[in-house]
Design brief:
The chain is mainly α. It has helices at residues 3-22, 34-42, 47-84, 90-106, 110-137. It has a domain at 68-137. Helices cover 81% and strands 0% of the residues. α3 packs antiparallel against α4 (90-106), α3 (47-84) runs parallel beside α5 and α4 runs antiparallel to α5 (110-137). The longest helix has 38 residues, at 47-84.
């Protein structure tokens, strides 16, 4: 090992020896830190407990943001399919837009999903119901 690594190890060893000697702990010789650990567990405003909770909240918020972003992206894709269904392959793209719009609606993009479902279903209905009547009359 290099000189710096040896110096660092010695510094850490010295710090550990200093911490064990200078800390007054009430307990037995086999478990010297038992009272300190219990105090941290039972303390109401312990910073150790608060730090863990803050991390969990941060992770949950990040998951929620990812879920909302995924719903918005899917909502826009389904809306593009719904608009395209008015011009190209109405049954296929309209049904796809309705299904993707429903999934986007469930993931949190309520407005985009609702519009995509409505436009897609209207395109399918126009193509399957109204267009055959038009050709039957003419």
């Amino acid at each position: 090992m290099g000189k710096y690594e040896d110096d660092y190890k010695e510094l850490l060893d010295e710090r550990d020896r200093h911490e064990h000697v200078s800390r007054p702990v009430v307990g037995t010789a086999s478990m010297p830190n038992v009272n300190e650990e219990m105090g941290a567990d039972f303390a109401v405003s312990s910073q150790v407990a608060d730090a863990e909770r803050r991390e969990e909240r941060h992770v949950e918020r990040a998951d929620r943001v990812d879920a909302e972003t995924g719903g918005n992206a899917l909502g826009w894709v389904s809306l593009v399919f719904a608009v395209a269904s008015w011009f190209l392959w109405p049954v296929l793209l309209g049904a796809t837009a309705a299904v993707l719009g429903f999934i986007a609606y469930r993931q949190g993009a309520r407005a985009l999903g609702g519009w995509a479902m409505a436009i897609g279903i209207i395109a399918v209905a126009l193509n399957l119901i109204i267009v055959p009547f038009y050709y039957a009359i003419t």
